Amino acid sequence: MITTAETYHTPVLLQESIDGLDIKPDGVYVDVTFGGGGHSREILRRLGKGGHLYSFDQDEDAERNIVDDNRFTFIRSNFRYLRNWMRYYDMDHIDGLLADLGVSSHHFDDETRGFSFRFDSALDMRMNKRAGKTASEILNTYDEDQLADIFYIYGELKNARKIATTVVKARGEKAIVTTGDLLQVTEQLFPREREKKEVAKLFQALRIEVNHEMDALKEMLSDACELLREGGRLSVITYHSLEDRIVKNYMKAGNAEGKIKQDFFGRIETPFQQVSNKVIVPNGEEQQRNPRSRSAKLRIGVKRGK
């Protein structure tokens, strides 16, 4: 499949998310989800000669979109290693960080990767094709309890236990290798009127487990809290309630659970000041133009001083 930066991924909430960074011309910024490079290019457009942008992506396909600019450094790595890489580049602090979470249009449209049930392909779902278990390996090796937990927690599927039981029984007769295999095994488990939405949740749950997305997100946000200097900006776009809850909690309390800390005088200690009390969502025109944006939520926080 041939892709270009323009077709790889359509940036969601482009202007709003970059405006939220309040970019300083000589600042240091990080885009932890480079993808097609749309957000990164807009950051570079606003940076001066003294500024610099570090962009992360663990998918080798994203490297085709690398920007030729001496103010730009591409890091092929999972963003969970943010602090290690910033230490490697002698960066103690950054002025802003952008994250556009979820899966790019490129991944959904690439029929070889197994992210979409529109194509009958190998159940891979790895963002980094060099490492980790595939979705097929998980389906064929995890026990029933593990699978039920994944489907319930990451997919929020009410019939998670029944799905897990069905998968375990089916794989005893034949390994579940392709998206078509999985659909055939589970087709009787979802009401016809909600089938596509429920199957999408099932695929989401597997993808999150394959890529350890929740753990990676928590580690990245923890690093961001430490790296952002006073007044630095955190701009994060989420697409489902699980990741949005974690982002909201980190901005409010500095931890994934949202546990509020208080100082000696009982004053609430919060690492970020919210730029907007309400989440920012795409307008109707963008939602029409880019269906992926319909579930998007943007949260922007400004790092408080200690």
Which characteristics define this entry?
alpha/beta, two-stranded antiparallel ribbon, 7-stranded mixed β-sheet
Structure explained in plain terms:
- With 306 residues, the chain is α/β, with parallel strands linked by helices.
- It is built from 13 helices and 9 strands.
- A 7-stranded mixed beta sheet has the order 3-2-1-4-5-9-8, sandwiched between helices.
- The chain starts with a helix and ends with a strand.
- Residues 1-7 have low confidence and may be disordered.
What is the fold's blueprint, element by element?
Blueprint: H1 5-8, H2 14-19, E1 28-31, H3 38-46, E2 52-56, E3 72-75, H4 82-88, E4 94-100, H5 105-109, H6 135-141, H7 144-153, H8 160-171, H9 179-186, H10 195-211, H11 213-227, E5 228-238, H12 241-253, E6 261-262, E7 268-269, E8 272-274, H13 284-289, E9 297-303
Parallel strand pairs: 1-2, 1-4, 2-3, 4-5
Antiparallel strand pairs: 5-9, 6-7, 8-9
Helix pairs in contact: 7-8, 7-10, 11-12
Quick summary:
It is built from 13 helices and nine strands. It has helices spanning 5-8, 14-19, 38-46, 82-88, 105-109, 135-141, 144-153, 160-171, 179-186, 195-211, 213-227, 241-253, 284-289; strands spanning 28-31, 52-56, 72-75, 94-100, 228-238, 261-262, 268-269, 272-274, 297-303.
Secondary-structure element series: HHEHEEHEHHHHHHHEHEEEHE
Arithmetic mean pLDDT: 89
**Could you state the oligomeric state of the chains shown?**
single chain
Q: How many individual β-strands?
A: 9
- Integer-rounded radius of gyration: 20 Å
Lateral arrangement of strands in the main beta sheet: 3-2-1-4-5-9-8
Number of helical stretches of at least 4 residues: 13
**Proportion of helical residues:** 25-40%
Low-confidence stretches: 1-7
Percentage of β-strand residues = 5-15%
Shape: globular
| Biggest pleated-sheet summary | 7 strands, mixed
- Euclidean distance between termini CA atoms: 49 Å
Instruction: Give the class from helix and strand content and strand pairing.
Output: alpha/beta
